[in-house]
């Protein structure tokens, strides 16, 4: 399994996704500032992976904090991580879990020692990593039944092991179907401007021995129109309470094309990606990244000098274009608002790390 991120003797080690597929290089982050830089520069990306990185970065910051300043430093570090990627709700979910663990340890006894708190935070970060991998495998187990032997699946961006703690969300479903022996063909959208499909998803599929073909983003509609796509499978960075879904820019266009061509579109995401505090997609903040990602290609300017570019990193797909949402607790179908409520006993309890007491059964 691809090791996206790990904790190694007081350091956070992650694969540097900026240089894939040409080089498999690992970054060693020895300070929480190193982890923040890795998130901001897209060395690590993908909503679940960003959440894990933040949790480990917070633990790393606490580990290096002097006892007298530990509490002050802890909350300051959490605030710094919260400013890195505004759309990915897993980031804020992971920060909340780390805060809850910190406050629980501080409140447990007046004489609690700093070393015990630091150990607890490290344990919580590692648990977030383990929980994510297990959730991905459970998503795969639920979602593989939606895939038939011989299906051609269109993907967008990268929702694989590289976007998570391991195994993947959308690509985890594909992995599970492949492991079951189903013959699949994956159409990989290149995903401009940073080519996460061409560089990352294609790399993962090639490494796994899963048949894949790279296409430009603008080809997807034509392939659907010609009956060459059986389903679209994507991840998510934030899902609103009504099922509206924010994902990599271009997902909305695919969803409209899929509906027009009667191709089902499935979203695969852990419960941590569902933000029940945001009622609809209109409330999801959209990250605007630097224009050079659009104006340049591998360091070479591809547009006239003096021209500016817009670069929203995500768009929002309204729930009416989504067939179902695959989670670790089952497949959520329409009506999404009601069925998302059913999958949670209480959103606050889940954000603190508790599992829902009831699960929504796939229909």
Description of the structure:
The chain has 363 residues and is an alpha/beta fold. It has twelve helices and 16 strands. It has helices at residues 32-40, 47-63, 70-82, 89-108, 114-143, 170-179, 196-208, 220-225, 251-260, 292-295, 336-343, 347-351; strands spanning 5-7, 12-15, 26-29, 152-155, 185-189, 212-215, 231-234, 238-240, 245-248, 265-268, 274-275, 296-297, 300-301, 314-317, 324-327, 330-332. The strands form four sheets. A seven-stranded mixed sheet has the order 6-5-4-7-10-15-16, sandwiched between helices. Mean pLDDT is 93; it is low at 346-363.
SSE topology:
Blueprint: E1 5-7, E2 12-15, E3 26-29, H1 32-40, H2 47-63, H3 70-82, H4 89-108, H5 114-143, E4 152-155, H6 170-179, E5 185-189, H7 196-208, E6 212-215, H8 220-225, E7 231-234, E8 238-240, E9 245-248, H9 251-260, E10 265-268, E11 274-275, H10 292-295, E12 296-297, E13 300-301, E14 314-317, E15 324-327, E16 330-332, H11 336-343, H12 347-351
Parallel strand pairs: 4-5, 4-7, 5-6, 7-10, 8-11, 10-15
Antiparallel strand pairs: 1-2, 2-3, 8-9, 9-14, 12-13, 15-16
Helix pairs in contact: 1-2, 2-3, 2-4, 2-5, 3-4, 4-5, 5-6
């Amino acid at each position: 399994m691809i090791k996206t991120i790990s904790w190694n003797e007081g350091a956070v080690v992650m694969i540097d996704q900026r240089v894939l597929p040409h080089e498999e290089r690992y970054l060693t982050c020895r300070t929480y500032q190193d982890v923040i830089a890795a998130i901001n520069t897209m060395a690590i990306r993908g909503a679940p992976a960003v959440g894990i990185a933040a949790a480990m970065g917070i633990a790393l910051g606490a580990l290096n904090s002097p006892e007298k300043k530990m509490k002050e430093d802890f909350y300051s570090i959490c605030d710094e991580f919260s400013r890195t990627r505004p759309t990915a709700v897993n980031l804020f979910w992971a920060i909340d879990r780390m805060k809850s663990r910190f406050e629980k340890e501080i409140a447990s006894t007046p004489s609690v020692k700093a070393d015990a708190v630091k150990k607890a935070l490290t344990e919580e970060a590692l648990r977030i990593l383990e929980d994510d991998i297990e959730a991905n495998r459970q998503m795969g187990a639920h979602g593989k039944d939606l895939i038939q032997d011989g299906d051609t699946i269109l993907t967008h961006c990268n929702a694989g092991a590289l976007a998570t703690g391991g195994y993947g969300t959308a690509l985890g479903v594909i992995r599970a179907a492949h492991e079951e022996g189903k013959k699949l063909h994956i159409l990989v959208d290149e995903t401009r401007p940073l080519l996460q499909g061409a560089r990352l998803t294609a790399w993962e599929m090639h490494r796994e021995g899963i048949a894949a073909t790279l296409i430009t983003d603008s080809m997807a509609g034509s392939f659907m129109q010609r009956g060459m796509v059986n389903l679209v499978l994507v991840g998510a960075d934030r899902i609103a309470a009504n099922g509206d879904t924010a994902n990599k820019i271009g997902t909305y266009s695919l969803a409209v094309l899929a509906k027009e061509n009667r191709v089902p579109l499935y979203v695969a995401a852990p419960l941590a990606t569902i933000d029940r505090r945001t009622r609809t997609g209109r409330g999801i903040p959209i990250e605007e990244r630097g224009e050079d990602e659009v104006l340049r290609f591998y360091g070479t300017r591809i547009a006239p000098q003096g021209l500016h570019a817009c670069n929203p990193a995500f768009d929002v797909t309204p729930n009416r274009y989504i067939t179902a949402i695959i989670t670790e607790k089952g497949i959520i179908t329409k009506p999404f608002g009601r069925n998302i409520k059913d999958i949670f006993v209480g959103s606050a309890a889940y954000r603190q790390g508790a599992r829902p007491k009831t699960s929504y059964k796939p229909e």
